[in-house]
Design a protein that fits this description.
By secondary structure, the protein is of the alpha/beta class. The chain binds riboflavin.
Length: 343
């Protein structure tokens, strides 16, 4: 029995050294180890924003001796997230809980009231003033604005050659949430209208973060309605949007990661977040004892955490030099802070 236990503990430590995820003993630690729990609000598959989160934390753990990082997937039932995070805190297994999602700060604040010693590092969300919680929010307005700008540029280009089209760009979102409705959607619209004030946004909801078939149906309907370029922010459902667009000669703008290679020629823009690096850096900062709990930071293009990929060969091949020049000059103005889009 003792041997078995020792083996289990060793497995946990070994996994921890490699920054490994499940498979080890969740959060088991000795006096010499630090344990980090990575809470995924959803599932990793199909959601690169979460894959990058886990990769960044695990890279930091792998580079620091005696640190175990364990991934816990919260699943798609959002009503269960708070109890899942509460159990993580109640277990006492994690020195730090890391997550990423605009809805996590409120959940962490509830858990923190019950377990004040629990520390949280949260990306893509914002809450200031709780001594147990540090947040780093991305400027999603900038990400969305750059996406809207390229969508309108490409759309205008296709429009001039196609009869009966309208000045309309598409946005397929998984669900409504305050960041989507109040920041991403208006940012996308404003970016498109910077190209031509006549642009409107055809905004539709999948209803979940995984249904690729529904994503395809919505995209098809949009395309039939005259939409030529679609931004998709719907996790695993993005795959369906991409498929429908490529079959019908429409174009797609990708969000969070470089998506050009997913469907060369169809993906005409990639606005991205440097979430892997942010997760890595903030975890290193925590491990060095320097993470300023209680504070909320906001980072954007000028800080190097939000960007638009302009040097990918698929982008160069898919988009005309004139459009690339117009998009490039927008990005340069945001990067140099000559254009301040707000937060
Ligand atoms: N983004 C994903 O890529 N996959 C998800 O499963 C996912 N679930 C979310 C659930 C909620 C309740 C909220 C508020 C956001 C979710 N996001 C998800 C969106 C994510 O936080 C971010 O807004 C987008 O990835 C755009 O950067």
């Amino acid at each position: 029995m003792k041997k078995v236990l020792l083996l289990i503990v060793l497995t946990g430590v070994l996994f921890g050294c490699r920054g490994g995820n499940s498979g080890g003993v969740a959060g088991r630690r000795t006096a010499h180890t630090q344990s980090i729990g990575i809470f995924i609000p959803g599932v990793m598959s199909g959601s690169p924003i979460y894959e990058m989160l886990a990769q960044g934390v695990q890279r930091a753990a792998a580079e620091t001796s005696g640190v175990i990082a364990t991934v816990i997937e919260g699943g798609y039932n959002q009503a269960e997230w708070e109890s899942r995070v509460t159990s993580m805190a109640a277990s006492g297994d994690y020195d730090l809980i890391v997550s990423s999602n605009p809805s996590l700060p409120a959940i962490a604040a509830e858990v923190s009231a019950k377990f004040p010693k629990q520390r949280f590092l949260l990306l893509d969300g914002e809450l200031a003033g709780n001594p147990g919680i540090y947040t780093m929010r991305y400027n999603q307005r900038e990400q969305a604005y750059m996406a809207g700008h390229i969508a309108a540029l490409v759309s205008s280009d296709l429009w001039s050659t196609a009869a009966g089209s309208t000045a309309k760009v598409g946005l397929v979102a998984a669900q409504e949430y305050p960041t989507m409705n109040n920041i991403i959607l208006p940012g996308y619209r404003d970016g498109a209208q910077a190209v031509d004030p006549a642009f409107t946004v055809d905004f539709r909801l999948v209803g979940n973060w995984f249904d690729a078939e529904r994503g395809a149906e919505i995209a098809e309907d949009m395309i039939l309605g005259g939409v030529k370029v679609i931004l998709c922010i719907s996790g695993g459902a993005n795959e369906g949007v991409l498929k429908a667009a490529s079959e019908r000669g429409a174009k797609v703008v990708w969000f969070d990661i470089n998506g050009y290679a997913l469907s060369p020629g169809t993906v005409v823009g990639s606005a991205i977040l440097h979430q892997e690096r942010a997760a890595y850096e903030q975890t290193i900062r925590y491990l060095a004892g320097n993470l300023p709990f209680g504070s909320a930071e906001v980072v954007g293009v000028a800080d190097g955490y939000v960007d638009f990929i302009e040097d990918d060969p698929h982008y160069l091949a898919a988009v005309s030099p004139e459009i690339r020049k117009a998009q490039g000059s927008l990005i340069e103005r945001i990067r140099s802070r000559a254009l301040d889009l707000g937060e």
